[in-house]
Amino acid sequence: QGQLVESGGGSVQAGGSLKLACVMSGSFAKINAMGWYHQAPGKQRELVAAFVGGGTNYSESVKGRFTISTDTGANTVNLQMNDLKFEDTGVYYCRAWGGNDYWGRGTQVTVVS
Q: Of 6, 98, 105, 112, which cross-links 32 as Cys (Cβ 3.0–4.6 Å)?
């Protein structure tokens, strides 16, 4: 059974940067997409960046500021977040999906003034 573990969250000033990492371990079956979701306080979880359909997709709210990448040798999917805004605050989850669906437990990002 595959596991996803996120890291890299923390508190950062507005305009600053953070890099999140999602380490994949174990066996993943029927996966054809991977991505990062953001859940702001009191709101639903939303997809912000993903590898899907052979390309990358970004939500409008993060386009130009966030970059998703992979480190194949480390079995890691990263999310580089630049020019962070207060509305980027929340929990960030890693997900791998296709025929099966895998989620990490999330990492907290807090943007402060």
A: 98
